[in-house]
Amino acid sequence: MSELDELRNEVDAADDAILAALRRRFAVTDRIRELKIREGAPRIDKEREREILARVAAAVPPAKRDTVCAIWERLFAGARGEIETIARGVCVKDGKVLLCRGKGAASTYLPGGHIEFGETGAEALVREMKEETGLDSTAGKFLGVVESTFLQHGERHCEINLVYELSIGNGDVSAQEDWIGFEWRPLADLAAANLLPVDIRRFVRIPAG
Asked: CA-based angle 57:30:83, to the nearest 5?
């Protein structure tokens, strides 16, 4: 085994430990949220969050603090049940629209992903497409906003979707991640794709011009 393989194995072992710790953390924060609801306590405790951020920031070198704090802020957001802001793209070629589907899922959605702090929606869409397909893309005209709320695994989620026209570079559009897949769906057959959220379907059309 090469030194690189050994180091990668160490990374995998560290990831497994992180996942185990996250499962414990999720279980505890779920109980805290339920307790707050029962007792009518405030949902957000900013002082407690500041204390946690100060502790984790102090535990890592200065060069890593922004990364670590961003991870914990994302954990806070998930525990609070905040509204997610997502950039999505409408990419139409030859009468077909590019859709994304979770492996084994019955519904599809427009490609894209979460907007990170400091990004515009267009920048987030281009970054997500590069990460998910390996292809360069261009975010074009802003088409509009769709709000959505839904249940996932028994928990309520809320999203704000910023929708853009999307052009993607040449090459097969294939997923770089195991849990999703891409498909080109004829516009005439869009209803069968079960595209969600339903209100986003009004933006799926052949671009003008």
From this structure: 75
The residues of the chain scoring below 70 in pLDDT are 81-82, 151-156, 171, 207-209
CATH superfamily placement of domain 84-203:
Nucleoside Triphosphate Pyrophosphohydrolase (3.90.79.10)
42's CB contacts (< 8 A; 6+ apart) are 36
Which residues of the chain are in CATH 3.90.79.10 domains? 84-203
Element holding 112 (H helix, E strand): strand 112-114
**CA 10 to centroid of chain Cα atoms:** 27
In whole angstroms, what is the distance from residue 26 CA to residue 139 CA? 35
For the domain made up of 3-80, give the CATH fold.
Chorismate Mutase Domain, subunit A (1.20.59)
| pLDDT per residue as tens digits for the range 129-161 | 999 999 999 999 999 999 988 766 566 678 899
Q: Is the pTM of this model over 0.85?
A: no
Q: What type of residue is 99?
A: L
